[in-house]
Recover the amino acids of this structure.
């Protein structure tokens, strides 16, 4: 595989830092340009960034000069094959469009997720949405394109729902207990969360309820028809650093047994596993049998943060089946998702 | 109201301490006897008890001598009209029976909750279950009796379900986020819960699923017919000191509007309010309109810990309505529940 | 005592909220004006303020209209006898001066603490510094004046050092473990403090090291000569909501016994106790004998948040004596300190 | 280096699990026997052990059968060259002696630390104490021996004090903020530590004050003369998972500059570094220049948990110099310490 040079937009933020951490030593991708806001532009990355990760900032990254987040500055700073966008949702929309005119943009922002001609990609779940890319390029007359990754709490849910589709998935009720890092930095004030739970995350429930249907929808060659599933989400913020835990109830028409459901989870693999993509976990879903798992601190790093851990699969007195799922929200739910998407595009010839 | 003397079983434990705290200055009840295990018997309470509450131990209680938890020791220690039992579930059963042969026993333990002839009482919800007391006394030939309070996470759920019964309540899915104090002391090791959630609490889901049906059941003069409701519970332990938060989805046949449901919550009162019982909160259910409430630390002390706070009442894409409820698990969910039950019995002439 | 009307500057902030909470039902002071930044001016207090306290916002306060923080707006809003300033340190200086030209200003800000003619007051410790007020008014030609309360971590330390002065206090080493609320709101990001300690608080060590000497200094009728004590402070932020804990080592020339030191703590009272001021705790210092106290959650509310709890007084292998002290940083360390100062001024005729 | 077979006593406990984790893939040592209490004996390790670490239990370890902690059972279970003891302090004494009659015992327990003929070893600090081994064997007529590792909070302090000895170290005042894992499992109840600090750890202050003098003492060929240093320790438990933070003040006769002290820390290396022992960190002490480091969560894993991170080195108004130090209490402070000690013994021919 030929190496590709990448630019990271919003490189100094929490997700930007994860991109840098996860791309260190990547076999296909090299970081060529780090872009951030005007306040950071012109500074060395080590001076512009309040590094929050437990591993050390890679030395050579620290020495790079941050550039402003505009097409001209990024192009002047280096030859770029690919752009990762970790821009905040409220400003991402138009900026990503200017970049997409010339470059593939893989975005973590919500701005374009529900656009009709933009993939909302989870490589194991719906690789066929990549076929929206030529549609989009044609329609928008771009030489680049935008592909999006879903919201963090949606990704892990959708990965576990995908293998349940075969059983006639009709209704889903999910209650989330989401980690602090999902709110970015500075994010949640400590005074709000110590000895407490905040039972509300702005726009999160709507994202889960709408994005999931597009992710699990069917692609007809031109557009995605949303899956015919009713979804209810209740989202809570808890005092956990990383790792969203979700309690899920599903109604399955075919009434499979608990063991059939577990087997569907366990045997689930997708294109990333078949193609042995570098970021792909061996198993997208790990099923644990202990009575008290998954737990955020013990399971969030499973599959180097890319596996979803499922536990307590059991029959439900109201719906058919209930279970818990847990994923690392800034790896599988953010930067790792973007990298895996890029890997799939590279393997399939889209970039 | 004539004053009554009470004994507390398991007086040195977490719930026992709450009983003592809440009974300080009570207008009807005086603490006459403190009973605990053999290890504590013979010691002054202040030496036998590792007091864990933020308020100081009442001075005169500290000077009382703890007696062993058997009928003879308790009777020798003082004239007792009434027994509060905070015994651990695994030993409560037979001990409570020996006491019930002579005394009214108001129990926080699970042992007898599902007995056919034992009330499972929430004074605002099902005061008619007190009529099981004469049935029980007759059947068991006791001069005393046992009445039980439900499990902490069940009480707050059932209080909010009661006013929904009129709308044709058929199905309930609840996911709980429960506080540390619900596990007693020493309870949950700090190493297990820091930066973590434990998605399992032994027997808790079963308790919610079975007890709620008895609480909301109908009494036919001889026994309680369980309510015809399907209930699904998923229980999680979170790093919060006090206050269980529950995310609830309900299916209501009559499809009331969100405003009708809120009004049903707001206007709900019961016998304790009509009788102005000392421990009764002015409003059993407080409905908050803020987007991010209820929160454990901000709402657990509402109504001196006896009100349930409901928030985020909204329509649900899968069921009819969803909402959150929060209650103080060691006050409304434990010691306060027992005291309110005793007050109702006193007001109605059962003790 | 005639009632006085007070204005609160920065009324919507964390300390401002505490002022409102503590002044509810105060026998001498009525809240007449609430001032805050332009963003809040013109709004009802309930709409301008994100209320963070566990008790409810007083209803009539919520209905008051917030005014801008300038002399003219405050004067137009009501007759004011006295101004409490909870302004941020970086803007407090000049604003407080404009108010002091006409009103007594009791300030929680650092700006004027070390001014030669401004009291740095702890009512139990150095009431004689009130005599700086006529000096200040004369020198600055003001009809009002500024009096300051020390930094929160300094107040509790100084209260415990005062009774040790008689033993020839020469050297103090203190290591603090400070609560989140000391940083205001939003303050410390939760991602920084979960499973962590931050061993640095900007300017805090300097404040402890310099303010303490002025507080314990001697007043010669014109100015305060700093106490001749060497002080070393190391300040840490920990994941505790309220209550600063401090580990203190002191060198005492007279080498008193542990019991003599404890007795000095226990018997310490000051003007607020002699005058029975409303906010004064019965005992400024509570000495606990348990091996593991004081603890923030168990002891911060002692004396309604106005007592300092001391524990583990023991002899030290390097200095003479070591002990721990704990105080509620937003009550005794902030709003309660201001109110007690105002009460002392009222009782002594300064306002 | 020839491979050696090791037995681990108390293999199912928290420190035992760390030994297993850190020995996985070790180039010199193979785990041959896992011993634990009678309750575990005869079970597979995976069934006997509640594994608490974030990494998975090594598969082949899980299949091993646990044996009882007595000499006979361990000898029957396998050929053993070396015993690591993670026994609780109250039972370790006599059990370790029975093993030492035949095997080298490297102990994490306090029982024999202060024995005159037993090394209290930190490989970088006092490798000469290994020469106590022949003394001990002769005196006790053992073919094996006991060597001990200091208490966790002492190890990291002593490593930072060692390079200060050259400046005439006379007095040390240390205040610790210690992690939960230092108390073992189940250890500290979560109800005691949420929103709280416990300012007392049984025997910890005495251990720091006495062990440090032996560690830094001088060996005269027959015994260790304690260093002539006055040490004062105040120990606190905080809500942090791993990593003890210590605020240290030292008095140094030679009055070195801050830069000289930093350079002494930075340039400090010992035998493990010279011998390139497998467990040895490249640098025993890492000096950070950021204003707010070290922090437990960010620095505890430095040098794979074996480096001590020092920060905020500054001059002190009372003593000479103050600084903070941080170490991973269950790696450098426990299992990693034992393994490094064993490596040094292997390299020097003691085992």
């Amino acid at each position: 595989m030929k190496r590709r040079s990448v630019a990271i937009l919003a490189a100094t933020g929490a997700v930007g830092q994860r991109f840098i951490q996860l791309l260190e030593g990547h076999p296909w991708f090299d970081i060529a340009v780090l872009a951030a806001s005007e306040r950071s532009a012109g500074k060395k990355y080590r001076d512009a960034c309040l590094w929050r990760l437990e591993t050390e900032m890679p030395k050579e990254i620290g020495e790079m000069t941050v550039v402003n987040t505009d097409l001209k500055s990024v192009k002047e700073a280096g030859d770029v094959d690919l752009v990762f966008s970790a821009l905040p949702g409220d400003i991402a929309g138009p900026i990503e469009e200017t970049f997409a005119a010339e470059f593939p943009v893989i975005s973590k922002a919500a701005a374009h997720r529900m656009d009709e001609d933009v993939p909302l990609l989870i490589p194991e779940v719906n690789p066929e949405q990549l076929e929206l890319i030529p549609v989009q390029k044609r329609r928008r007359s771009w030489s680049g394109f935008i592909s999006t990754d879903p919201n963090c709490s949606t990704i892990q849910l959708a990965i576990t729902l995908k293998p349940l589709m075969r059983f006639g998935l009709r209704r889903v009720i999910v209650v989330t207990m989401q980690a602090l890092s999902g709110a970015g930095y500075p994010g949640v004030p400590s005074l709000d969360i110590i000895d407490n739970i905040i039972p509300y995350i702005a726009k999160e429930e709507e994202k889960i309820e709408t994005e999931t249907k597009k992710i699990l929808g069917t692609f007809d060659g031109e557009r995605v028809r949303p899956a015919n599933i009713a979804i209810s989400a209740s989202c809570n913020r808890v005092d956990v650093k990383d790792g969203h835990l979700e309690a899920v109830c599903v109604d399955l028409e075919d009434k499979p047994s608990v063991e059939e459901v577990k087997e569907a989870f366990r045997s689930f693999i997708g294109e990333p596993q078949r193609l042995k993509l570098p970021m792909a976990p061996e198993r997208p879903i790990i099923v644990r049998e202990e009575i008290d798992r998954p737990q955020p601190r013990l399971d969030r790093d499973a599959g180097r943060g890319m596996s979803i851990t499922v536990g307590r699969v059991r029959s439900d007195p109201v719906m058919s089946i209930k279970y818990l799922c847990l994923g690392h929200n800034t790896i599988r739910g953010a930067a790792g998702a973007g990298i895996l998407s890029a890997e799939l595009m590279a393997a399939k010839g889209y970039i």
